[in-house]
Write a structure and sequence with these properties.
- The complex is a heterodimer of chains A (736) and B (448).
- Chain A is of the alpha+beta class.
- In chain A, the strands form seven sheets. Chain A has a seven-stranded antiparallel β-sheet with strand order 10-14-17-11-5-23-22.
- With 448 residues, chain B is of the alpha/beta class.
- Helix content of chain B is 31%, strand content 28%.
- Classes of the chains: A alpha+beta (736), B alpha/beta (448).
Chain lengths: 736, 448
């Protein structure tokens, strides 16, 4: 089946338009459709097509590796291997989806060469033998004893390629041209079907049937969008973005409160620090939150799309449709989160967070940005020491902060920067009375009971803090596993059980309980997440995933700053360290390799730009093999020759020397289908053979007997043939 | 395990049936659209990052709308199939089917499809086939070795029928590629009509059972000097074959008691007045035994098919010479068929070979006794064997002891020639050749 003129070209242009690859698409379309006007054709053999397919396959693998490296990175899977959890699995899944989408988008380019070879080949189709080899799993060792096939004919792959192009065109989010894809697809599909329609039916029947399909298809795709939106509204957790294996999200933080079993966090290194001036900070904060509901902390803006002013950006996983549907349900809890852009200094790498602050310490921080924006750029929250006023040598594309002191960065996958900090001001906004004193109704009974037991009525802020600190230090223990609850009351909550029954839990329990307890005691507090910095390594410090920590921020009215207040027992560090894997050293070495590779990859070295060039020699070699292989094969055939299946008698007759000699002299060359006797009669008129004509006749008789007589030649006759031939050759030499 | 196998077997049959239905029901365009729908279904799940769900709905309703037209087609017709008697594996053939339109409307755009539902394997056959495939499978290889469908008998192409005016006949040419030897059974013909969008075919069926025999594949053989010399055949060709008449008439003589009535020469009796009978010359001619090893477990094994092809190649080559050929093999019982010198032709031998089935491993002694019984009258023996174990070596040893020249052709799997140790037997009267599956033709060419 040959497609109608310009249909594949139009599909390519449509694909280019939809995916933003219009220039390559235009070139490809021109090349493919140009074959109709160009008369030059190439003689591709079956083997050539197979090699071209191999070339495309290598290209596909290269694209897969490139895409995987760009959109996922191996760290997702190593994280999954080290600490399998819902988060890491979901991260890997999201990364895999991004890889696949990018790869699908490139498919028309990857397989273009194969289709172009068909267009410019003399056959105009791919031979079935080649397809059989291609479709065989074991390409190199294709079945030597296959089922028989019809001998003639081939397959025109234009229609499958056309379908591939349309499929590739669907791999975009459709933000800008939501319905244009549908109408473009409809038009091109209709074009293809029209050319293949049966003559049995009238044009009107075809139009009627296809119009029905369009109407149903359009209604169906609208319905699918709404269905997805409704599902999204059912549980926003399913659609929240998976930020990174560091697990921080500027809008919300789901805690593990109430989850039974052992908390699993891996020992993989996620941050590296190197103090330059002053001491290393004991904690690095990534985000802080105000509102606690159903074991999740919210920044107070969870349903917003996280638009960064000055640039349209959407956090992955939240579609506008989901938001629109979910907003009415959750609006009372959240308000718009104000992310403000930060402007770098003229050197493009210095970012002032607090312009008038005097920073007394400086630490170099290296961390990964493992989230992805809608346009697949790395994004993440920066772990910063409390009181950070300036970021130096930070090569981020975009930096923005919200009023909870969270800094979001869009940039390379790995950022290395200097954080300058000191006591005093922080970038957090002043407290809001309603939000920073908010306590969920479900938690109030337990908190009131505990607060009453503390007896801090009328005491100063510092005394209250000391009492609360002592309360948790004396009566609570750190524990990373929780037992299942046998008897649960209707108003029972995980936090209530922690405060009143178990008195043990991990840092999220302590931090959440502290924040809400202090709010119960009329102190404005927030919930902070980040990392504890405890472990030294060579000339710096490393932070592992298991060092993830949560603590409380308390507002100090006197200094008008937020202060860290951590009630988790100090033993938690030792307990976490005791969970070190026996393979920790090995994993650290691997982590270091990853880190060095990430430095190389994410712009720390200009060499990464040239990395794809490594593929060029390989692809060039393959192309060379395709284009020039036949010449090499001919040369090989000339020297070796195919093995003969049968030994034909008389093939060594000397008479052939005479024939070859006369052909070299250009006397009268023998035609390929001409018998020797006919050729000799024709050659007899040549003056060069005047002296040997009679002898040649005798020689031919002997030759024929030697060649075809079942009894062959007697030894004497065989000698005669040999002797006379040499005589003739001598005469011919003398003649020259 | 047994229950699981049963379920898998049912699943396998269902898959075969579905594939057969899809191949008939879907046009090439429909196949492309359906494949695209399956692929797009996967990516359509992600409605945030792709708009593939729009393609999904369009393709889905394309398929649904097209399929609804499948139920609206009725046509009365007659068909006559001109089927050749034989086909050969690997050799494409064409035949004509005459179709008569019995309606009052001109029928346009119809396709003729042959209904040759591949014979579904029995459970035992399927198990044997599956097990043999897995036995040779290598660890960590996704695709089983030799997993090409062992039960598919032929490939058939749909034939376009020219425009059919009312009550007129037109001919469609069907192209067929036989894939497996044996009987190819045609159940009937189907007239297919595409829907307006050209994705699905509606069917009108006509039962028309017919059978064609597919002969085994044959390889060209070099001029092979077959072993042995002429031997006295007691009673001539007649007794040699137990059928037919010897025509080597020598002279007339007087009747002796015991002479058969049919040898009486009536004219001479009338002339001389006493019974005269015809006398025949004792005959000497070359007679070969072609022994085919059928002792293999797997009914659809490629190795066995290769062995049959080799035997067929020799049968044709030997019968083109002035000699007799005894085909000896064991199936449900021991068989000996003789052909040559006017008894029967290579066609008959090929027909037998087309229908031959392997038997179990345990009855090789039956073949041995059959061969030894015939050893006295044969000039030489061509043994096509599937293994070179002790039992087969004993058979050859016994033939050697009886001074019968033997040509042993051992058919092995691809790459298996190196591991074959012929042992001390070859030499003298015994010639031994190994034929590798996949390169049988090359190996046969090396026989001297």
């Amino acid at each position: 089946m040959k497609p109608p003129p310009f249909m594949v070209g139009a599909a390519l242009l449509f694909w280019g338009w939809q995916t933003g690859l219009l220039i390559p698409a235009a070139i490809m379309a021109a090349l493919l459709e140009g074959a109709r006007f160009v008369t030059v054709r190439w003689e591709f053999t079956d083997e050539d097509f197979s090699r071209l397919w191999l070339f495309c396959t290598v290209l596909l693998l290269a694209a897969l590796v490139y895409s995987f490296n760009t959109y996922v990175g191996f760290s997702y899977f190593t994280a999954e291997a080290r600490a399998p959890s819902f988060l890491t699995q979901n991260s890997a899944g999201q990364g895999g989806a991004r890889t696949a989408i990018a790869l699908f988008r490139w498919l028309p380019m990857i397989f273009f060469l194969f289709v172009a070879a068909q267009a410019y080949s003399s056959r105009q189709e791919i031979p079935r033998a080649s397809l059989r080899r291609i479709l065989s799993w074991r390409w190199k060792k294709a079945d030597k004893n296959p089922l028989p096939e019809f001998p003639a004919g081939g397959v025109n792959v234009s229609y499958p390629y056309f379908a591939l192009v349309l499929f590739a065109a669907s791999n975009h989010s459709g933000d800008n041209n939501f319905y244009l894809f549908f109408w473009g697809l409809t038009l091109l599909t209709g074009w293809a079907l029209w050319s293949q329609r049966s003559r049995r039916f009238t044009t009107l029947s075809w139009i009627g049937a296809f119009t029905l399909v369009i109407a149903l298809g359009f209604a169906g795709q609208l319905g699918m969008g709404q269905l997805q939106g409704l599902l999204g509204a059912l549980n926003p957790q399913w659609f929240t973005p998976i930020w990174s294996h560091r697990g921080s999200n500027p809008f919300q933080s789901r805690t593990w409160l109430g989850d039974i079993g052992r908390l699993q966090l891996s020992g993989s290194i996620v941050i590296r620090l190197k103090p330059e001036i002053g001491a290393v900070p004991s904690r690095l904060r990534e985000a802080s939150y105000r509102t606690y509901r159903l074991q999740t902390w919210y920044s107070g803006s969870g349903l917003e799309t996280g638009d960064v002013p000055g640039r349209r950006r959407r956090w992955r996983g939240w579609s506008q449709r989901t938001n629109d549907l979910a907003r009415p349900f959750f609006a009372p809890w959240f308000r718009r989160n104000e992310f403000e852009p930060l402007v770098s200094q003229t050197n493009q790498t210095t970012w002032l967070l607090l312009p008038n602050k005097t920073n007394t310490s400086r630490v170099q921080i290296a961390c990964y940005l493992e989230g992805r924006t809608q346009d697949s750029q790395p994004v993440g929250l920066l772990p910063l020491p409390t009181g950070c006023g300036e970021l130096d040598r930070l090569t981020a594309f975009w930096l923005s902060k919200n009023n909870l002191g969270t800094i979001s960065a869009v940039g390379p996958g790995l950022v290395m920067f200097d954080a300058c900090y000191g006591p005093g001001d922080t970038i957090d906004s002043a407290p809001l009375t309603n939000d920073d004193l908010d306590i969920p109704d479900a938690e109030k009974p337990a908190l009131e009971k505990v607060a009453a037991g503390l007896g801090v009525e009328g005491k100063s802020r510092d005394e209250v803090l000391q009492t609360v600190q002592k309360y948790f230090q004396d009566g609570f223990t750190y524990r990373i596993w929780q037992e299942p609850v046998r008897f649960r009351k209707s108003d029972d909550t995980p936090l209530g059980r922690f405060l009143l029954t178990t008195h043990s839990g991990h840092c999220e329990y302590f931090a959440t309980a502290t924040v809400l307890l202090l709010r119960q005691l009329h102190l404005q507090t927030r919930y902070a997440v980040g990392y504890a910095v405890e472990e030294g390594s060579h000339n710096g410090y490393v932070v592992r995933q298991r060092d993830a920590h949560a603590w409380c921020l308390v507002w100090n009215d006197r200094t008008r700053t937020w202060e860290d207040f951590d009630t988790t027992p100090a033993s938690w560090v030792a307990m976490e360290s005791s969970r070190m894997s026996p393979w920790q050293r090995l994993m650290d070495a691997w982590s270091w390799t990853e880190f060095e590779f990430a430095r190389f990859r994410w712009g720390q070295s200009p060499l990464r730009v040239y990395l794809p060039l490594l593929l060029v020699p390989l692809l060039g070699f393959l192309l060379y093999r395709i284009l020039f292989r036949r010449g090499r094969k001919r040369a090989r055939l000339a020297t070796a020759g195919p093995p003969e299946l049968f030994h034909w008698p008389g093939r060594d007759s000397e008479f052939y020397l005479v024939e070859r000699r006369l052909a070299q002299d250009g006397v009268i060359p023998r035609d390929p289908d001409e018998t020797l006797s006919h050729w000799l009669r024709r050659a007899a008129v040549s003056p060069a053979l005047e002296n040997v004509h009679g002898t040649l006749g005798t020689l031919l008789q002997l030759h024929y007997r030697y060649r075809f007589d079942p009894h062959s030649l007697a030894p004497d006759d065989r000698d005669e043939l040999r002797r006379r031939t040499h005589q003739v050759l001598k005469i011919l030499d003398g003649g020259n | 395990m047994h229950l699981t196998s049963r379920i898998l077997y049912r699943l396998h049959r269902a898959v075969l049936w579905s594939r057969h239905q899809l191949q008939h029901r879907l046009t090439p365009t429909g196949l492309t659209v359906s494949a695209a729908l399956v692929i797009v279904t996967v990516t359509a799940m992600d409605t945030d990052n792709t708009v593939a769900y729009q393609a999904f709905t369009l393709l889905l309703f394309l398929v649904v709308v097209s399929f609804t037209f499948v139920f609206f087609f009725k046509v009365r017709f007659l068909a006559v199939r001109s089927l050749p008697r034989f086909g050969t594996v690997g050799h494409p053939l064409s035949y004509r089917v005459g179709v008569t339109n019995l309606t009052s409307k001109t029928q346009v755009g119809l396709t003729l499809l042959e209904n040759t539902l591949d014979p579904s394997p029995s459970f035992a056959e399927w198990m044997a086939s599956g097990e043999s495939g897995w036995k040779r499978a290598r660890l960590f290889r996704l695709r089983r070795r030799g997993s090409k469908s062992p039960f598919k008998a032929a490939r058939l192409r749909a034939a376009e029928i020219p425009s059919l005016p009312p009550n007129k006949q037109a001919e469609a040419v069907v192209h067929l590629m036989p894939l497996r030897r044996g009987a190819l059974r045609f159940h009937g013909v189907i007239l297919g009509r595409p829907d307006p969008l050209g994705l699905f075919r509606s069917f009108a069926r006509l039962s028309m059972p017919q059978t064609m025999l597919i002969l085994p594949k044959r390889y060209p053989l070099p001029p092979i000097p077959l072993p042995g010399t002429t031997k006295y055949q007691e009673g001539g060709v007649t007794f040699a074959s137990n059928v037919g008449q010897s025509e080597e008439f020598v002279a007339l003589r007087e009747y002796r008691r015991g002479d058969p009535m049919r040898y009486i020469h009536w004219r001479s009796w009338a002339k001389v007045g006493k019974p005269i009978v015809k006398e025949f010359e004792d005959e000497f001619f070359v007679r070969h035994a072609l022994v085919l090893d059928t002792f293999i477990d797997e009914p659809q094994d490629d190795l066995f098919e290769e062995a049959v092809s080799v035997a067929a190649s020799f049968a044709c080559a030997v019968l083109s010479q002035e000699s007799l050929l005894d085909l000896l093999f064991v199936e449900s019982q021991a068989y000996c068929f003789t052909a040559g010198r006017g008894l029967s032709h290579s066609d008959q031998i090929l027909e037998i070979l087309a229908s031959i089935r392997p038997s179990g491993r345990k009855r090789i002694r039956t073949l041995e006794s059959l061969v030894i019984d015939n050893a006295a009258i044969v000039s030489g023996c061509i043994c096509v064997l599937l293994a070179w174990d002790q039992a087969r070596q004993d058979l050859v040893k016994k033939l050697k002891a009886l001074d019968v020249p033997v040509l042993v052709l051992l058919v092995v799997e691809e790459g298996g020639a190196k591991s074959v140790d012929p042992g001390p037997l070859p030499g003298g009267q015994v010639r031994f050749y190994v034929l590798e599956s996949g390169r049988i033709e090359e190996d046969l060419a090396k026989i001297q």
